[in-house]
Amino acid sequence: MILNFKQIPYTTSWIEYPDLAPQLSSLGIPPNDRSAPDYKTDYAIPTITMPDGTHMMDSWPIAHKLEEIHPSPSLRLDDPIVLKVRDQIANIMKPLTGFVIPKVPKRVLNERSAVYFNETRKERFGMSLVEVEETMATGEKWEEARVPVLEAVGWLEESGGPYFLGETVSYADFIFVGMMHMIKRLDEDVFQRFLAYDPALPKLYDACKPWLEKDD
């Protein structure tokens, strides 16, 4: 969404999950810090190649680098709402895990990546994704997610909407809408149910549609 918002030309290259680590390491990209509290894997996507040939991994540093070299239009990265929304995503997605993650290998991955995803997530969760869905896609978890979702909605309402900064779009909007768009691609029914948490959510999503038109 950032590249679309800033009108930066780009092409997308898709890499199968098992090939991520060898391909990214071959580019000289250092692995993620295994001592970091949010560490999950050595290599992850998105990864971007800059015009000067350098490579960066992870959305957060990529956003800051793009803002540095393409400052206009601004992502408003210095506004406190950006960090608030970024950190709130984990609070929302944790209870929604059972509704979302098991759909990934079935809906968006090729067979080779699907096998890898199923195996690695079984290690992470201590159960298969079938079991994750059976045990975690519950009404109780859906209601648990309502609390952080409505807290974020409160921030939208405080600003007057449709964006987290009122009439001014920021990276906070792209973070939140990126999450919603992922849910939509995985399961339209879950997406519609998510929008039903509050009318402010479809308003935010619709307001950001211009930057979702190219979503590859």
TrEMBL record:
Residues 1-68 form the GST N-terminal domain. InterPro entries: Glutathione-S-Trfase_C_sf, Glutathione_S-Trfase_N, GST_UstS-like_C. Residues 91-188 form the Glutathione S-transferase UstS-like C-terminal domain. It holds the Pfam family GST_C_7. CDD domains: GST_C_family. It comes from the Eukaryota. This is GST N-terminal domain-containing protein. It comes from Phaeosphaeria nodorum (strain SN15 / ATCC MYA-4574 / FGSC 10173).
